[in-house]
Amino acid sequence: MPTTNPALARANRFCDANNLRMPILLAPMAGACPASLSIAVANAGGLGACGALLMQPDAIRDWASAFRAGSNGGFQINLWIPDPAPIRDGPTEEAMCAFLGNWGPRPSREDGDVRMPDFAAQCDAILDIGPAVVSSIMGIYPCDFIAKAKSRGIQWFATVTTVTEARRAERAGADAIVAQGMEAGGNRGAFNAAQAEASMVGLFSLLPAVVDAVHVPVIATGGIADARGVAAALILGASAVQIGTGFLRCPEAALAPAWADAIGGSLPEQTLVTRAFSGRAGRSLGGCRT
Question: What is the pLDDT of residues 218-235, one digit of tens each?
Fold first, then answer.
Protein backbone atom coordinates (compact mmCIF):
# COMPACT_ATOMS: atom_id res chain seq x y z
CA MET A 1 0.00 0.00 0.00
CA PRO A 2 1.40 3.47 -0.88
CA THR A 3 2.66 5.49 2.07
CA THR A 4 3.88 9.02 2.63
CA ASN A 5 6.11 7.91 5.51
CA PRO A 6 9.68 8.05 4.13
CA ALA A 7 10.97 5.27 6.40
CA LEU A 8 8.19 2.89 5.41
CA ALA A 9 8.51 3.85 1.75
CA ARG A 10 12.23 3.05 1.86
CA ALA A 11 11.57 -0.31 3.51
CA ASN A 12 8.84 -1.10 0.97
CA ARG A 13 11.22 -0.39 -1.92
CA PHE A 14 13.79 -2.75 -0.42
CA CYS A 15 11.19 -5.47 0.09
CA ASP A 16 9.87 -5.10 -3.45
CA ALA A 17 13.39 -5.28 -4.91
CA ASN A 18 14.21 -8.42 -2.91
CA ASN A 19 10.86 -10.26 -3.02
CA LEU A 20 10.32 -9.90 0.72
CA ARG A 21 7.18 -9.17 2.71
CA MET A 22 9.04 -7.58 5.61
CA PRO A 23 12.41 -5.80 5.83
CA ILE A 24 14.01 -8.36 8.13
CA LEU A 25 17.06 -10.50 7.37
CA LEU A 26 18.31 -13.40 9.45
CA ALA A 27 21.95 -12.81 10.33
CA PRO A 28 24.25 -15.46 8.85
CA MET A 29 25.63 -16.95 12.07
CA ALA A 30 28.24 -19.63 11.42
CA GLY A 31 27.22 -22.84 13.17
CA ALA A 32 23.88 -21.41 14.32
CA CYS A 33 21.81 -21.16 11.14
CA PRO A 34 20.18 -24.52 10.51
CA ALA A 35 18.02 -24.64 7.41
CA SER A 36 14.96 -24.96 9.66
CA LEU A 37 15.51 -21.46 11.08
CA SER A 38 16.00 -19.90 7.66
CA ILE A 39 12.91 -21.67 6.35
CA ALA A 40 10.85 -20.18 9.19
CA VAL A 41 12.22 -16.67 8.57
CA ALA A 42 11.75 -16.86 4.81
CA ASN A 43 8.24 -18.30 5.06
CA ALA A 44 7.33 -15.42 7.38
CA GLY A 45 8.44 -12.95 4.71
CA GLY A 46 12.07 -12.26 5.59
CA LEU A 47 15.40 -13.37 4.11
CA GLY A 48 16.99 -16.59 5.36
CA ALA A 49 20.71 -16.98 5.91
CA CYS A 50 23.56 -19.44 6.14
CA GLY A 51 26.89 -18.62 7.75
CA ALA A 52 29.08 -20.94 5.69
CA LEU A 53 32.47 -20.14 7.23
CA LEU A 54 33.11 -23.68 8.52
CA MET A 55 31.21 -25.59 5.83
CA GLN A 56 32.77 -27.69 3.11
CA PRO A 57 31.45 -27.01 -0.42
CA ASP A 58 29.18 -30.08 -0.42
CA ALA A 59 27.72 -29.04 2.93
CA ILE A 60 26.85 -25.64 1.46
CA ARG A 61 25.05 -27.36 -1.40
CA ASP A 62 23.24 -29.69 1.02
CA TRP A 63 22.11 -26.74 3.15
CA ALA A 64 20.65 -24.99 0.10
CA SER A 65 18.80 -28.17 -0.91
CA ALA A 66 17.35 -28.53 2.58
CA PHE A 67 16.22 -24.91 2.57
CA ARG A 68 14.57 -25.17 -0.83
CA ALA A 69 12.74 -28.30 0.25
CA GLY A 70 10.94 -26.19 2.86
CA SER A 71 10.66 -22.73 1.31
CA ASN A 72 10.56 -20.94 -2.01
CA GLY A 73 11.82 -17.77 -0.33
CA GLY A 74 15.24 -16.21 -0.62
CA PHE A 75 18.39 -16.64 1.43
CA GLN A 76 21.89 -15.25 1.73
CA ILE A 77 25.13 -17.19 2.03
CA ASN A 78 27.94 -15.54 3.99
CA LEU A 79 31.68 -16.12 4.11
CA TRP A 80 34.47 -14.50 6.06
CA ILE A 81 37.03 -12.93 3.77
CA PRO A 82 40.21 -14.86 4.69
CA ASP A 83 43.20 -13.16 6.25
CA PRO A 84 46.64 -13.50 4.68
CA ALA A 85 48.63 -16.44 6.01
CA PRO A 86 50.28 -15.47 9.31
CA ILE A 87 54.02 -15.00 9.57
CA ARG A 88 55.44 -17.99 11.44
CA ASP A 89 57.75 -17.45 14.40
CA GLY A 90 59.72 -20.68 14.86
CA PRO A 91 61.49 -19.87 18.15
CA THR A 92 58.29 -18.69 19.82
CA GLU A 93 56.37 -21.74 18.61
CA GLU A 94 59.10 -24.06 19.89
CA ALA A 95 59.03 -22.33 23.27
CA MET A 96 55.26 -22.73 23.47
CA CYS A 97 55.46 -26.42 22.56
CA ALA A 98 58.12 -26.98 25.21
CA PHE A 99 55.97 -25.22 27.82
CA LEU A 100 52.88 -27.26 26.93
CA GLY A 101 54.99 -30.41 27.16
CA ASN A 102 55.19 -29.83 30.90
CA TRP A 103 51.51 -30.68 31.17
CA GLY A 104 51.20 -33.62 28.81
CA PRO A 105 52.57 -35.03 25.55
CA ARG A 106 54.71 -32.43 23.83
CA PRO A 107 52.81 -31.11 20.78
CA SER A 108 54.45 -30.44 17.45
CA ARG A 109 54.52 -27.01 15.84
CA GLU A 110 51.79 -28.06 13.39
CA ASP A 111 49.32 -29.39 15.96
CA GLY A 112 47.68 -26.03 16.54
CA ASP A 113 47.02 -25.19 12.90
CA VAL A 114 43.37 -24.77 12.00
CA ARG A 115 42.68 -25.84 8.44
CA MET A 116 39.67 -24.00 7.14
CA PRO A 117 37.65 -25.13 4.11
CA ASP A 118 39.05 -24.01 0.78
CA PHE A 119 37.72 -20.48 0.19
CA ALA A 120 37.77 -20.69 -3.62
CA ALA A 121 35.87 -24.00 -3.53
CA GLN A 122 33.31 -22.48 -1.16
CA CYS A 123 32.85 -19.58 -3.58
CA ASP A 124 32.32 -22.02 -6.45
CA ALA A 125 29.67 -23.85 -4.42
CA ILE A 126 27.88 -20.57 -3.76
CA LEU A 127 27.81 -19.80 -7.47
CA ASP A 128 26.45 -23.30 -8.11
CA ILE A 129 23.51 -22.97 -5.73
CA GLY A 130 22.62 -19.42 -6.78
CA PRO A 131 21.36 -17.74 -3.59
CA ALA A 132 19.52 -14.44 -3.77
CA VAL A 133 22.41 -12.79 -1.93
CA VAL A 134 26.03 -13.49 -1.12
CA SER A 135 27.23 -11.49 1.86
CA SER A 136 30.68 -10.77 3.18
CA ILE A 137 32.25 -9.94 6.51
CA MET A 138 35.77 -8.84 7.42
CA GLY A 139 36.62 -7.57 3.98
CA ILE A 140 35.71 -7.54 0.31
CA TYR A 141 35.30 -10.47 -2.06
CA PRO A 142 37.72 -10.83 -5.00
CA CYS A 143 36.44 -8.80 -7.95
CA ASP A 144 36.26 -11.84 -10.25
CA PHE A 145 33.93 -13.63 -7.82
CA ILE A 146 31.67 -10.58 -7.57
CA ALA A 147 31.54 -10.32 -11.36
CA LYS A 148 30.55 -13.99 -11.66
CA ALA A 149 27.93 -13.64 -8.93
CA LYS A 150 26.34 -10.59 -10.50
CA SER A 151 26.30 -12.25 -13.92
CA ARG A 152 24.11 -14.93 -12.28
CA GLY A 153 21.77 -12.38 -10.71
CA ILE A 154 23.25 -12.79 -7.22
CA GLN A 155 23.46 -9.61 -5.16
CA TRP A 156 26.36 -8.79 -2.84
CA PHE A 157 25.65 -7.36 0.63
CA ALA A 158 28.85 -6.18 2.38
CA THR A 159 29.15 -6.02 6.17
CA VAL A 160 31.01 -2.94 7.44
CA THR A 161 31.80 -1.40 10.82
CA THR A 162 32.93 2.09 9.75
CA VAL A 163 32.08 4.75 7.19
CA THR A 164 35.44 4.20 5.49
CA GLU A 165 34.69 0.49 5.05
CA ALA A 166 31.23 1.34 3.69
CA ARG A 167 32.70 3.59 1.03
CA ARG A 168 35.24 0.94 0.06
CA ALA A 169 32.55 -1.70 -0.28
CA GLU A 170 30.32 0.53 -2.39
CA ARG A 171 33.22 1.36 -4.71
CA ALA A 172 33.89 -2.38 -5.06
CA GLY A 173 30.31 -2.95 -6.24
CA ALA A 174 28.28 -3.84 -3.15
CA ASP A 175 24.53 -3.80 -3.83
CA ALA A 176 23.76 -3.05 -0.17
CA ILE A 177 25.73 -2.23 2.95
CA VAL A 178 25.17 -4.05 6.25
CA ALA A 179 26.15 -1.54 8.94
CA GLN A 180 27.22 -3.52 12.00
CA GLY A 181 27.11 -1.67 15.30
CA MET A 182 29.32 -2.56 18.23
CA GLU A 183 26.34 -4.16 19.98
CA ALA A 184 26.27 -7.08 17.54
CA GLY A 185 26.75 -10.56 18.96
CA GLY A 186 29.43 -12.78 17.51
CA ASN A 187 32.39 -11.59 15.50
CA ARG A 188 33.13 -7.99 14.58
CA GLY A 189 33.10 -7.43 10.83
CA ALA A 190 36.07 -5.04 10.79
CA PHE A 191 38.19 -5.24 7.64
CA ASN A 192 41.35 -4.74 9.72
CA ALA A 193 41.35 -7.33 12.52
CA ALA A 194 43.92 -5.43 14.56
CA GLN A 195 41.68 -2.33 14.64
CA ALA A 196 38.43 -4.10 15.53
CA GLU A 197 38.24 -2.85 19.12
CA ALA A 198 39.44 0.65 18.27
CA SER A 199 36.73 1.15 15.64
CA MET A 200 33.72 0.06 17.70
CA VAL A 201 30.82 2.47 17.16
CA GLY A 202 27.26 2.03 18.40
CA LEU A 203 24.72 1.16 15.71
CA PHE A 204 22.58 4.26 16.04
CA SER A 205 25.63 6.51 15.70
CA LEU A 206 27.12 4.50 12.84
CA LEU A 207 23.90 4.00 10.87
CA PRO A 208 23.04 7.59 9.85
CA ALA A 209 26.69 8.28 9.03
CA VAL A 210 26.82 5.28 6.69
CA VAL A 211 23.45 6.17 5.15
CA ASP A 212 24.78 9.64 4.35
CA ALA A 213 28.03 8.27 2.90
CA VAL A 214 26.73 5.73 0.36
CA HIS A 215 24.15 5.56 -2.40
CA VAL A 216 22.97 1.96 -1.95
CA PRO A 217 20.50 0.55 0.61
CA VAL A 218 21.82 0.20 4.15
CA ILE A 219 20.82 -2.68 6.42
CA ALA A 220 21.17 -2.12 10.16
CA THR A 221 22.47 -4.86 12.44
CA GLY A 222 23.62 -5.09 16.03
CA GLY A 223 21.46 -5.29 19.13
CA ILE A 224 18.10 -5.19 17.32
CA ALA A 225 15.68 -7.68 18.83
CA ASP A 226 12.17 -6.19 18.75
CA ALA A 227 9.90 -3.74 16.93
CA ARG A 228 11.37 -0.74 18.74
CA GLY A 229 14.82 -1.44 17.32
CA VAL A 230 13.41 -2.05 13.85
CA ALA A 231 11.47 1.23 13.93
CA ALA A 232 14.47 3.20 15.18
CA ALA A 233 16.72 1.79 12.47
CA LEU A 234 14.22 2.61 9.72
CA ILE A 235 13.76 6.16 11.03
CA LEU A 236 17.55 6.64 10.96
CA GLY A 237 17.71 5.70 7.30
CA ALA A 238 18.02 1.92 7.13
CA SER A 239 16.16 0.08 4.39
CA ALA A 240 16.01 -3.13 6.45
CA VAL A 241 17.41 -4.75 9.58
CA GLN A 242 19.40 -7.92 10.18
CA ILE A 243 18.83 -9.89 13.38
CA GLY A 244 20.89 -12.77 14.75
CA THR A 245 20.85 -13.29 18.51
CA GLY A 246 17.19 -12.28 18.65
CA PHE A 247 16.28 -15.38 16.65
CA LEU A 248 18.39 -17.88 18.59
CA ARG A 249 15.66 -18.69 21.11
CA CYS A 250 13.23 -19.71 18.37
CA PRO A 251 12.57 -23.47 18.43
CA GLU A 252 13.70 -23.71 14.80
CA ALA A 253 17.19 -22.61 15.86
CA ALA A 254 17.57 -25.81 17.91
CA LEU A 255 19.85 -24.03 20.36
CA ALA A 256 20.89 -25.90 23.50
CA PRO A 257 18.40 -25.01 26.27
CA ALA A 258 21.13 -23.76 28.61
CA TRP A 259 22.36 -21.29 25.99
CA ALA A 260 18.82 -20.17 25.15
CA ASP A 261 18.07 -19.57 28.83
CA ALA A 262 21.31 -17.61 29.26
CA ILE A 263 20.44 -15.33 26.36
CA GLY A 264 16.89 -14.80 27.58
CA GLY A 265 17.96 -13.84 31.08
CA SER A 266 20.94 -11.66 30.25
CA LEU A 267 21.39 -7.91 30.60
CA PRO A 268 23.26 -5.71 28.09
CA GLU A 269 26.11 -5.08 30.53
CA GLN A 270 26.72 -8.82 30.88
CA THR A 271 28.26 -9.08 27.42
CA LEU A 272 31.90 -8.53 26.58
CA VAL A 273 34.17 -8.39 23.54
CA THR A 274 36.85 -11.08 23.44
CA ARG A 275 39.21 -12.75 21.00
CA ALA A 276 39.16 -16.03 22.94
CA PHE A 277 36.85 -17.93 20.59
CA SER A 278 38.24 -17.28 17.13
CA GLY A 279 41.18 -14.90 17.41
CA ARG A 280 38.89 -12.20 16.03
CA ALA A 281 37.13 -9.71 18.27
CA GLY A 282 33.61 -10.90 19.04
CA ARG A 283 30.85 -10.12 21.51
CA SER A 284 30.01 -12.91 23.94
CA LEU A 285 27.75 -13.49 26.90
CA GLY A 286 29.77 -14.68 29.86
CA GLY A 287 31.47 -17.84 28.61
CA CYS A 288 29.40 -18.35 25.45
CA ARG A 289 29.12 -16.51 22.15
CA THR A 290 25.87 -14.53 21.72
Answer: 999 999 999 999 999 999
